[in-house]
Design brief:
Elements: H1 14-33, H2 37-50, E1 54-55, E2 67-72, E3 76-81, E4 92-97, E5 102-113, E6 116-124, E7 137-144, E8 150-155, H3 175-179, H4 182-185, E9 192-196, H5 208-221, E10 231-237, E11 242-244, E12 250-253, H6 256-270, E13 279-284, H7 301-315, H8 319-327, E14 330-333, E15 337-338, E16 360-363, E17 367-368, H9 379-391, E18 396-398, E19 408-409, H10 413-417, E20 422-427, E21 429-430, E22 438-441, H11 442-457
Parallel strand pairs: 1-2, 4-13, 4-14, 14-20, 15-21, 16-18
Antiparallel strand pairs: 2-3, 3-13, 5-6, 5-10, 6-9, 7-8, 7-10, 11-12, 12-22, 16-20, 17-19
Helix pairs in contact: 1-11, 6-11, 7-8
Bound molecules: manganese (II) ion (MN) (2 copies).
């Protein structure tokens, strides 16, 4: 089966192709440094401050051209560049998510078994569990001590730092395992990370390796075993994002869903100085687990941010003007989607799937089993977005998340649509989505950046 579509490289001049590769270098650096939603928020705040953004609290009144940010518990982020028109007339928003599938340490993770110490995990988001065994893992996050101190832990990225791993069975003895369904080859409770192996003290003492580990943890971080109860520690694939292929046309790395859209919409916003309509970039958390929680899109975080902006523009708290602002806005739900993979042609409709290298993907709807749980963008709005991209000569393609009744998924589009704003899904196609090593195309990443920039300016 062949899928023939426009190749976005053909739309770029040699100078633009060069720019696309340069842009991808910055993007890879971001992926390498932002392994968790907390790290992503920290990095983005550093970057926006350099671009003249200030926290919401720094303003007593917002003027046209002001640049403002609001962190939501250090896990989600809203940014705005104040436009010429009153916010009541609506804004332009590109919404993406900071979180990515990973393995979270359980509240009581540490146990010793036959001289090895493991940490128990509970996976976060949609993972194929077998992909997480026999690969180096890094550990990132925070621990809150009994005294209330916050301890940062980040280990496994540097070449001289130790990593962690989940063991797998050798093929020689895997007869029974290999006869299992893939989903059962490794179960949720098998995702135990090997974290220590050296004992301490007298030979007749039990759990000597665990005792040694706890001593190391106390010395190095000042934490105790009970402190894991109040911790958020995430195991993620260790190592840097990489160029892929002899021609370096692809980017491989963890967390591209959805930090691809975080990075591209952020860089797009940096190009916006005096927009007509207020430009908002929103980076949500918890998308991969259904957007629940105080940092997810099912919370009031967008409404609250817009209320704050509205108040700082002199409208105090007026519910009607906030509602109007939200309802009259236009949104891109910026998220990674499936790209056609010639190794797995049967799961997509070849006439409606997106391809790697085909440019930014417009997905009118996502959803599962008969467009369930999707906002389904209006034809009028898809038409508008098409015109914006065409006018700027941006490579785009339309895409659908797999064959009808094959499966599917959702995005944050529906949580923006509930305010009555127009919204459509728009982001890069990916291969090996949700795996420890996701793939995107350099040219698609560049197309996303240009597409979001045009949308902010629209
Ligand atoms: Mn996503
Ligand atoms: Mn996802």
């Amino acid at each position: 089966m062949e899928v023939e579509k426009l190749n976005a490289w053909d739309k770029l001049t040699p100078a633009q192709q060069q720019q696309a590769h340069q842009f991808a270098t910055g993007y890879r650096n971001f992926l390498t440094q932002a392994k968790t939603e907390r790290q992503a928020v920290k990095l983005v705040i550093e970057a926006v401050r350099e671009h003249g953004f200030q926290p919401l609290e720094a303003f007593s009144r917002l003027q046209q051209g002001d640049k403002v940010y609001q962190s939501i518990y250090g896990k989600a982020l809203c940014l705005a560049v104040v436009g010429e028109h009153p916010i009541e007339q609506g804004f332009r928003i590109v919404g993406s998510h900071m979180d990515a599938p990973r393995l979270d340490l359980k509240p009581n993770p540490i146990y010793e078994e036959s001289g090895l110490v493991f940490a128990k995990t509970h996976y976060y988001g949609g993972v194929k569990k077998y992909q997480w065994a026999a690969v180096p893992l890094a550990l990132h996050g925070i621990v809150i001590t009994a005294e209330g101190k916050t301890v940062n832990i980040s280990l496994g990225e540097g070449a001289d730092e130790p990593v962690f791993t989940i063991t797998d069975l050798l093929p020689h003895l895997a007869k029974d395992q290999l006869d299992k369904k893939i989903r059962e080859a490794l179960k949720g409770e098998d995702l135990n990370i090997l974290v220590a192996s050296v004992p301490v003290g007298a030979q007749n003492v039990k759990a000597r390796v665990k005792a040694n580990l706890l001593e190391i943890l106390h010395k190095q971080y000042g934490i105790t075993e009970e402190d894991f109860v109040s911790a958020e520690l995430e195991a993620v694939p260790a190592g840097a994002a990489r160029q892929v292929g002899f021609d370096k046309g692809l980017i491989g790395g963890y967390g591209q869903d959805d930090r691809a859209c975080v990075y591209t919409s952020l860089q797009a916003l940096f190009d916006i100085n005096h927009p007509k309509m207020t430009s908002i970039a929103l980076f949500a958390d918890k998308e991969e687990t259904g957007s629940a929680g105080s940092t997810g899109m099912k919370s009031n975080l967008l409404e609250d941010f817009v209320s704050e902006l509205n108040a700082l523009m002199g409208n105090k708290f007026e519910q009607l003007s906030v509602r109007r602002a939200l309802r009259r806005s236009k949104a891109l739900s910026a998220d990674g989607t499936v790209g056609f993979d010639p190794n797995f042609p049967d799961v997509v409709d070849k006439y409606n799937t997106a391809s790697l290298g085909g440019g930014v993907v417009i997905s009118k709807y996502s959803g599962v089993g008969g467009k369930n749980d999707t906002s389904d963008a209006s034809a009028e709005f898809v038409g508008e977005v098409r015109r914006i991209f065409n006018q700027a000569n941006i490579a785009w393609q339309s895409g659908e998340l797999g064959k009808v009744d094959q499966g599917g998924g959702g995005t944050i589009a529906q949580y923006m649509a509930r305010y009555g704003m127009e919204v459509v899904d728009c982001g890069p196609a990916m291969l090996s989505l949700h795996s420890p090593f996701e793939l995107t195309s350099v040219v698609d990443i560049y197309s996303c950046y240009r597409a979001y920039r045009e949308f902010f300016n629209y």
